[in-house]
Amino acid sequence: MDQRPRRTLLYLPASRASAVAKARTLDCDAVILDLEDAVAPDAKPGARDAAAEALDGQWGHREIAVRVNALGTVWSIGDFAMVARARPDAVVVPKLNSAADAAAAVAAAGGVPVWGMIETPAGLLDAAAIAATPGVTALLAGFADLAADLRLRPDAARTPLHHAMSIIVCAARAAGILAFDGVFTDIRDDAGLAAEAAQGVMFGFDGKTIVHPGQVATVNAAFAPSAAEIDHAQRLIAAHAASPDGVTTLDGKMVEVLHVAAAQQMLARAAAISAR
């Protein structure tokens, strides 16, 4: 798994030229041009054309992905054909229900990496097999649809979704791919966004999908190592290196090889963010 920062993945309607133009100036790590939920049915063909035009390489450090319409819809064949021609960094495929769906998406994408959305009960139950499908390089949580299908009533802490969150992260880690948290839709609630982003970090997600430019800074900060974490990682590595037999403590806690590996990974992540 490469270390490039993927803290913030901004969804925006591919059909909205002003949003596309603004996204080119934002500090998000990735932009997802949406052809699905954010686009009305009669606007989808035009949105597809707009997405193809936007894939012009003028995105700076930002990765650029396209979210196509789900397999089996009347728009998906045209969406995948455009993706295979235009070659974005990834294609986001909604409502993958099985490994067979994932394999079909990979084939349709023509070599473009697939980021599969886990947002149905069937998809959640087959998440490990979906993640292990060659060509799938990330799982994205779609908790709004999943919660609706399961008839959940999530609270501010997303308590009923904790099991699903763990499954998605575990499936991604077992396959050696990325895992991204779902969106926070209340664009006026900065405190709620910060809390949910911190929770995503706690559950092990690599980053978070977002729906508004105003959410970029908060989520970037949550998914970047803090100064205190960087300092601790540096001291831990130094303490372990200074121990003749590799057995030592730091701040009263045992330091083991697994802690050193985690500290090194954190520092590599911090360096990648600084170098971007």
UniProtKB/TrEMBL annotation:
Mg(2+) binds at residues 119, 145. One of its GO terms (biological process) is oxaloacetate metabolic process. The keyword Acyltransferase does not apply. GO terms for molecular function: lyase activity; magnesium ion binding. Its cofactor is Mg(2+). It holds the Pfam family HpcH_HpaI. SUPFAM superfamilies: Phosphoenolpyruvate/pyruvate domain. Keywords: Lyase, Magnesium, Metal-binding. The keyword Iron-sulfur does not apply. Substrate binds at residues 67, 119. Residues 7-213 form the HpcH/HpaI aldolase/citrate lyase domain. InterPro entries: Aldolase/citrate-lyase_domain (IPR005000), Citrate_lyase_beta/mcl1/mcl2 (IPR011206), Pyrv/PenolPyrv_kinase-like_dom (IPR015813), Pyrv_kinase-like_dom_sf (IPR040442). Belongs to the HpcH/HpaI aldolase family. This is CoA ester lyase. The lineage of its organism: Bacteria, Pseudomonadati, Pseudomonadota, Alphaproteobacteria, Sphingomonadales.
